[in-house]
Amino acid sequence: MINDSKNITLIMVAILGAGLSILMGLAAYQYEINALNLQFKNEMNEKAASIEREISVKLEVLYAIKSFFNNSEFVSEVEFNHFTQAILARHPDILALEWAPKIQQDDRSTFTAEKRKLYPHFEITQQHSQGLMLPAKRRPVHFPVVYYQPQSQNELIFGFDLLSEPKRAKAIHSAIDTNQAKATELINLIQFSAEKAGFLVFLPVYQSKPITTEQRRQFTKGLIIGAYLFEDLLTEVFDRSNASYYDIQIFDSTESQDTLLFVHTTSSTIQAETDSYFSKTLKPIHGRQWTLIATPSEAYFEQTMSPMPYIACVVSLLFVVLIMTFSYVLVIKNKLLEQSKLHLEAISRTDSLTNIANRRHFDEVILNEWSRARREKTPLTLLMIDIDHFKVFNDTYGHVRGDACLKEVAQALNQSVTREYDFVARYGGEEFAIILPLSNHVNLIAERCRHNVEALQIPHRNSPSGSVVTITVGVATLTPDADKDLNQLIVQADTALYQAKEQGRNCVVFA
Ligand SMILES: Nc1nc2c(ncn2[C@@H]2O[C@H](COP(=O)(O)OP(=O)(O)OP(=O)(O)O)[C@@H](O)[C@H]2O)c(=O)[nH]1
C-alpha cells in the first residue's frame, strides 16, 4: 500500500516534471518568437527607410533637369539627350526621362510642321483603347513628349500627348497648379504591355517665376517627366537584402481604395504561423501615399531561430529524469531498509532454537491481549507448560538430543492450537506458554497439548514418571477488571503448574 502510494507520487512528480519541462520549452520558444518578431519589425523598418531613400534619390534627378532648363533659354534635343544620358548612366533603374513642351491648339500645326522637318512622320498622338497610337484629338493645350532618353524601347512615346490620358492629366494639372513634382497613380506605361505597370512624375518648368495658380497655368513652358517601373526601382532594395524570407507588398493608399503597386513574394509559399505582420505608411512621395506591408515566411523563422527552446526543453527533461532516477533509487533503498527492519524485528521476536515466538514476543502479546480482554471484558487463558525431568533427559542423552527434543515439543505444541490468535511461545529453558484469548475449550486444548507431546514417543529412559518425554500443564483463566492485573494471571498459571508437578506430572491442572 505504502509502496503503491510512493509509486503514484513518483509517477505524478514525473508527469509534473515532464509537463514543466515542456512548458519551459514552450516559454523559451515563445520568447524566441517574440524576439524574432521584433527583429523582423526592425528589419522591415530599415527596409521601409531604404525604399524611401531609393525612391527619393531617383525622383530628385528631375530637379537637376529642371535647373538645366531654367538656366537655359532653349534646351535642344542634343543637349537634353546629353544631359539625361549622364544621369541615366548613374541610375539605370529609371525607365525614361522625358521633356514635353506645352503646345496650344492654335500652335499645333506650326509645331507639327516644324518637327516634321526632322521627323517626317511626327504627329501629336494619343493612345487608342486597343493600344494603337492615333493623332491626338483637338484640345486647348497639348503636352507631347518630344525629348526622351533612352531612345530604345521608348519610341512609342514620341509625340504622345500626356494630357490625353486622364490619370496623367490629373497629375499634370496638380503639378502645374502647385509648382511641385507630382506622381501619377499606377498606370500602364505606353511603351509596355499592361503587366508592366509603373508611374510617371511630372515636374513643371515655367517661363518666368509665376506666383499664383493662374500665372502658373499661363506661364507653363513644359514638363519634365520621369518614368519608373516599380520592379526596376525596388530591385536594388531587395537584392541587397535577404529578401527570400518575406513577402512584401506596396499599396498606393492615396485614394479611398488601395491599389497594389508592387509584390515581392518569397520562394517559400508557407507563411509563418505568427502574428508577425508589418505595416508602415511611407513618407508621401510627390503627392502619393504608399503603404508597405510585409509578412515573414516560415523559412525566415527557420533560418533565424536559435536551438535554445529545444535545448531548454531537453535539459530540463534530462534534469527530471535525473531527479526521478535519484528518487527511484531512494525509494528502492527505503524499501530494502524497511524489509530488513521487519526481518530484524521478526528475528528479535523468534526463538532461534525452536523457531517459535520467544519470551520477548510473549511479553508483548500477553500485554496486548490483557488490554484487549479488559476493553472487551472477555476471558483470557494462559497455559504454562514444563517438560518433565528435562535435566535428567539432558544428563541421559546430552544437550544436542536435548535441543532436538525441545524443537519437537515446540512443534507439537504449535500444532495443538488451531485458531489464528492463539499464541505459542518458549517461555524460557524447557518451559513453554500458550495464550488463548476468548477460548471456550481450554481444557480440551491443554489436554491436546499434553497428549500430542506424549504421542511424540521421545524416549526418556531415566525419567521417574514414564519412559517417554511428557509435559505438565498449569492453566489459568481470568477476565480482567479494575481489581486484577496481568501478574495475577501469570502467578495463577504458574501455581497451577506447580500443583500439577506436585500431583505427579504429565497432567493438566486448572487454577
Ligand atoms: N538441551 C537443552 N537443555 C536446556 C535448555 N534450556 C534449559 N535446559 C535444561 O533444562 C533443565 C531444566 O531442569 P530443571 O529446572 O531442574 O527441571 P526438570 O529437570 O525438567 O525438572 P522438573 O521440571 O521438575 O520436571 C536444565 O538441565 C537445563 O540445562 C536448552 O536450550 N537446551
From TrEMBL:
GO terms for biological process: cell adhesion involved in single-species biofilm formation; negative regulation of bacterial-type flagellum-dependent cell motility; signal transduction. SMART domains: CHASE, GGDEF. GO terms for cellular component: plasma membrane. Residues 378-511 form the GGDEF domain. Keywords: Membrane, Transmembrane, Transmembrane helix. GO terms for molecular function: diguanylate cyclase activity. Its EC number is 2.7.7.65. It catalyses: 2 GTP = 3',3'-c-di-GMP + 2 diphosphate. The chain crosses the membrane at residues 7-29, 308-331. Its cofactor is Mg(2+). It is found in: Membrane. SUPFAM superfamilies: Nucleotide cyclase. Gene3D superfamilies: 3.30.70.270, CHASE domain (3.30.450.350). Signal peptide: none annotated. InterPro entries: CHASE_dom, CHASE_sf, Diguanylate_Cyclase, GGDEF_dom, Nucleotide_cyclase, Rev_trsase/Diguanyl_cyclase. Its main location: membrane. Residues 71-293 form the CHASE domain. PANTHER family: DIGUANYLATE CYCLASE DGCM-RELATED, REGULATORY COMPONENTS OF SENSORY TRANSDUCTION SYSTEM. This is diguanylate cyclase.
